[in-house]
Each structure stands twice: as structure tokens, then as C-alpha cells.
Write a structure and sequence with these properties.
The chain has three domains: 10-51, Orthogonal Bundle (Arc Repressor Mutant, subunit A), CATH 1.10.10; 57-103, Arc Repressor Mutant, subunit A, CATH 1.10.10; 107-152, Orthogonal Bundle (Arc Repressor Mutant, subunit A), CATH 1.10.10. Helices cover 71% and strands 0% of the residues. It is built from nine helices and no strands. Helix 2 (25-34) runs antiparallel to helix 3 (39-51) and helix 7 (107-118) crosses helix 9. Belongs to the RecX family.
């Protein structure tokens, strides 16, 4: 698994990372740069991994979206985190459509379920209600979804 000099190659490092979980191309690029590999070697390595379907931003995005839905996160936060991980808008939109269709995602029900796991009442005071609204907003739900979730408690 080592090159002749005893050091891991960019491909070997990338494959080890991908064996643990899916990664976006941008994440792999950053991690390989941190290991001081040359930019051209990184690009060639990642191009080859993509051609062999060992790395796919589409697959990463779908996997990432599913994991975040299971954590009770909303669309706004998921889109932001995909952007931070270097997934382009077109890939994000396609992956979201695929996951929403395959998993029959209802963002309003997800907001309700997420809120119900943390709180049992919509809050007796404006301060309590605001706390619940902030909780869902930081999770990435929009105003309509938050309002719906609060009306269900």
C-alpha cells in the first residue's frame, strides 16, 4: 500500500478516506493538500477516482442529505453545508430532488418531528416560543415550517 519511498500516494490516501465515508471532490482536495501533495497530482488522482466511480459528488450529496434528514435538519441548513463542502448548486439541487422523491421527504413533518423530540409544548410565554423558533431556525427550517411545527405541539 506504500509507494517505493514508503509514503502513501494521493490515491492511497483518497481511497482510505473514501473507505470511511463519501467525500466531495473539494473535501478530498483539501485533505490531500493538507498532506502536502502537489496540486497536479491531486487533480489527476481525483479525476481517475471519478472516472472509476470511486468518488462522486452526486453520491456524496445524496448520502449527506440523507444523514442530515435523519438528524432532523432542514433544507436551508443542508444546502448551506453542501455549499461549504464544495458541492455545486446544480449537483445539490439534483441530489435534493432525488432524495426527496426516494424518501418521500416532507419538510413540514420533519420540522414537527424534530421539535417534538426536543420540546413537549409550544411554549407558555413568548420567550419559550421564541426559543423553539430559534431551535428550528438553526436546524435549517423556514418560517412556514416552523409555524406548522409549533401549531402541532
Amino acid at each position: 500500500m506504500f509507494s517505493s519511498s514508503g509514503e502513501l500516494t494521493p490515491r492511497e490516501v483518497a481511497v482510505q478516506l473514501l473507505a470511511r465515508r463519501e467525500h466531495s471532490r473539494a473535501e478530498l482536495t483539501r485533505k490531500l493538500q493538507q498532506r502536502s501533495f502537489q496540486a497536479d497530482a491531486i487533480a489527476a488522482c481525483l479525476d481517475a477516482l471519478q472516472e472509476q466511480s470511486l468518488q462522486s459528488d452526486e453520491r456524496f450529496a445524496e448520502s449527506f442529505i440523507r444523514s442530515r434528514i435523519l438528524r432532523g435538519q432542514g433544507l436551508i441548513r443542508i444546502k448551506g453545508e453542501l455549499r461549504q463542502r464544495g458541492v455545486d448548486k446544480e449537483t445539490s439541487v439534483t441530489a435534493l430532488e432525488t432524495v426527496e422523491e426516494q424518501e418521500a421527504v416532507d419538510w413540514f413533518e420533519l420540522a414537527r418531528d424534530t421539535l417534538a423530540r426536543r420540546f413537549t409544548t409550544p411554549g407558555d410565554t413568548p420567550k419559550d416560543r421564541a426559543k423553539r423558533e430559534r431551535f428550528l431556525a438553526t436546524r435549517g427550517f423556514d418560517f412556514e415550517q416552523i409555524r406548522y411545527a409549533l401549531s402541532c405541539l
